[in-house]
Structures are given as structure tokens and as C-alpha cells.
Amino acid sequence: MIKLKRLFAPFLILLVAFAACHSPKTAQKEAFFTWEDSYHRQVQLDTAPVRIVSISPAITEVMFLVGAQDKLVGVSDFCNYPPETEKITKVGGMHNINFEVLLSLHPDVVLIGSMISQQDVDAIEKMGIPVVCIVEESSLEGMSEMMEVIGRITQCEAKGNSEAEKWRKKIAERRSNAPDPKDRKCVYYVVGFGDGGDFTAPKNTHIQEIIELAGARNAGDSLTGWNISREYLFKINPDIILVRNEDKEAFMSRHPYTSLNAVKNGRVYGIESGWIDVVSLRNMDAVDYIAGICGEN
The pTM is what? Predict the structure, then answer.
């Protein structure tokens, strides 16, 4: 019996060694989220974030839309919609982030838009906090991708995808119901006015897209820059003028704008700047508002 044990011992050692060499390796845990962000960086979140800081008004709005607002522990000073953002800790502006406050919030990730400098991104990442850039697109359609990506990051993927699909359908419906180009009202949006010059939205901007989705024609659709000459403004003499609510009274009472037909005929309308100045969910409010105005005139 002892001889048998001695005989089989070497074979047992070889068998154990063979099994060890050929046993399946422990599978590495797959990352929760990987994506090439808007700055073309390969970003990765190993686990689902539960503490999120948003330094973008558009991103903050989408987080509320998909139902992930409870994960927001900090927002930028410019994130003022919806009203509930008032209760969330502010971490500074786009160009003056308060890094001390940001760090004290212990975020799992910081979501940024297009206004954050590379220097600030580097500073945040040096603190050991991942940064994901989701740029506010220049096109309204780009908002649908933002909804989908934020849905994935916040584990609200189904809601993000469904809201993105609704958004695309709204845009498609508006386009399919748009009037013939020759029947469209000419709408002039006052970006700036006065002694410093006159400014409006040129072609290939989200503001032009808003106006066109509303079934109107952008007065600046032939411009390549934001400035517009007074001569050209009076030449086109727009049917409807849109101006920020806070600037409406000053614009309507200032010479030479008082000579424009829209001013004389009471077709100057105030609009909420948050609806139109930046790409956001509220752009659709601007589309509906302008469409209603055009239907009345």
C-alpha cells in the first residue's frame, strides 16, 4: 500500500498543477459606463454614480426630466431651472468653479457642457473625480442624445430613451406641418441692440432652427455672423420681432427701432431668454410660443 502511494504521488502533483494552469480565470468586472465623450475622450465609470454634480443648465434640466434629480448634489450658479434647483448646492459659474465646495460634496462624477475649460477639467480630475463632457449641441436634435446618455449614467435608461424618442417625434411633426416657405412670417430675434450695434441669430444656429420649426423664417438666415446692419434690418422690415422680456420696453421706445413696422403695428413680443438663448429642453416652449404668435398674425 505504501508503495502504491509513492507511485501515485508524482501523478497527483502533476494533475493538480495541470488543473491549476487550466482553471478558468476569474472574470474581470465590466465597467458600468464607457463612452467617447464630446471632447473625444474615452471615459469610464466603474460603478453607477449616486452623487452627481452638473455644471450645465441643459444637463441639469435633463436629469430632472429623466427622474434622476435626487442624485444631484451640486449644480452651477446658472442652473436655475426647474425651480427645485434653488435648493441644490451651487459650485460656482462656468469659469469660476469653487473647487473647495465641489470637493466637499464628494461627487462620484462631474457632468459638464461646452463652457468648461480644459484647465478646469484637469483640475477636477486631479482631485480624483471623473469628468464626463456632454456638449450642448448646436442643433435641437442633439438634445435627444443627451437624454439617452444621461439616462444611462443615472440608471434611468428607459426614461431617457423614451424622452429622446418623444423629442425626435416633436421635431419631426413640426417639420412635417411647416407652412410653405413663401407663406412664412419673417421673425427677427433681438440678440443685442443700441449703441454697441445690432445683433441677431445668423444661419446654422439653434435659434434659426427654433424659428423655422415654429413655421417662420429667421430674419438673419442670410447672415454668417451675429451682427446685422441697421440698413439691412430696415430693408427686411420683419413681420414679427422677438426680444427678451427684460429688454422689450427699452427696445420699443428707442429710436430708430420705433420706425420698424412691427413696432408700429404692435408686433413686438417678449420671450423668456431661457427658452431660446441656449440649447435646452425649453427650446420647444419657444417653438410653440412663436408658432402661436405666427398663427395670430
Answer: 0.83
In 23-79, alpha helices (H): 57-65
Q: Which CATH architecture has domain 33-173?
A: 3-Layer(aba) Sandwich (3.40)
Give 37-48 pLDDT, tens digit per residue: 877 889 899 999
User: Would you call 242 exposed, middle or buried from its count of C-beta atoms within 10 A (0-12, 13-18, 19+)?
Assistant: buried
Q: Which of 146, 147, 142, 91 is nearest to 120 (CA)?
A: 91
Cβ atoms of 101 and 107 closer than 8 Å = no
Q: Do domains 33-173 and 179-296 have the same CATH topology?
A: yes
Are 65 and 147 in contact by the 8 Å Cβ rule? The answer is yes
Band of residue 4 on the pLDDT scale cut at 50, 70, 90: very low
Domain boundaries, the chain: 33-173, 179-296
CATH topology of domain 179-296: Rossmann fold (3.40.50)
How many other CB atoms sit within 10 Å of the CB of residue 82? 14
